[in-house]
Write a structure and sequence with these properties.
Number of helices: 9
Radius of gyration: 18 Å
Order of helices and strands: HHEHEEHEHHEHEHEEHE
Number of strands: 9
Distance between the termini: 46 Å
Helix content: 25-40%
Shape: globular
Strand content: 15-25%
Strand order of the largest sheet: 5-6-8-7-9
Length: about 200
């Protein structure tokens, strides 16, 4: 049955997906579910319900402590498997200018800091929970190659996507102010991820 499949690591391991959330805002939730903490974020694990329980479509099953005991694996093993699955599925990489039909992004103290060829979006193929793409060194390394740079800033636009920008194009203080302002005025509370700006260096 679906429930039996759900408890079988050999069945579900190729379906495990990472979910990324803000650590501080979810401390109570995280007390009861397996997770890996990364900086100010936490990575939990979900299974698309249609993969193991066909009667439940378009849902996600949270991996609980009970399921972890059934699988007999630890959080690090599950994290590695989830990232491997993410990378296998692929991702979306697109110019924000093309998506929104804009030529530049105004950031205080920087003129034309991000033309449509400089600011890009990263997300999962299905667009849901796509900010997890920032967890993959492989995806970020490929992003640097596509943007022809060695270092990028990763901006947590929401839990569904991140924005990436050549780290040489703008100072981080302006970006941090931008991210905080957008989170306070545009991003829905349930989609908030972080006020931080992250740096990825492909050479380190």
């Amino acid at each position: 049955t679906g429930v039996e499949h759900l408890r079988d690591w050999d069945v579900v391991k190729n379906y495990i997906r990472p979910r990324i959330i803000n650590y501080r805002k979810n401390e109570e939730l995280l007390m009861d579910i397996p997770h890996v903490r990364i900086m100010d974020l936490a990575v939990t694990f979900v299974i698309p319900s249609e993969n193991v329980m066909s009667e439940y479509e378009n849902g996600r099953i949270e991996v609980t402590e009970f399921l972890m005991k059934c699988y007999e694996v630890d959080e690090v093993t599950m994290y590695k498997q989830a990232i491997e699955n993410l990378e296998r599925e692929g991702y979306e990489f697109a110019s924000v200018g093309e998506l929104l039909n804009i030529d530049e992004l105004e950031v205080e103290g920087n003129e034309k800091c991000a033309s449509q060829n400089k600011l890009h979006m990263l997300s999962c193929r299905n667009g849901i929970g796509g900010a997890v793409t920032m967890l993959s060194n492989k995806i970020l390394s490929e992003t640097c190659q596509k943007m022809e740079c060695e270092r990028i800033y990763v901006l947590p636009s929401s839990v569904n996507e991140v924005l990436v920008l050549n780290a040489e194009e703008i100072d981080v203080e302006s970006l941090q102010k931008l991210v905080k302002d957008v989170n306070e005025t545009i991003v829905l509370p349930e989609e908030f991820l972080s006020d931080c700006v992250y740096l990825y260096d492909s050479m380190s």
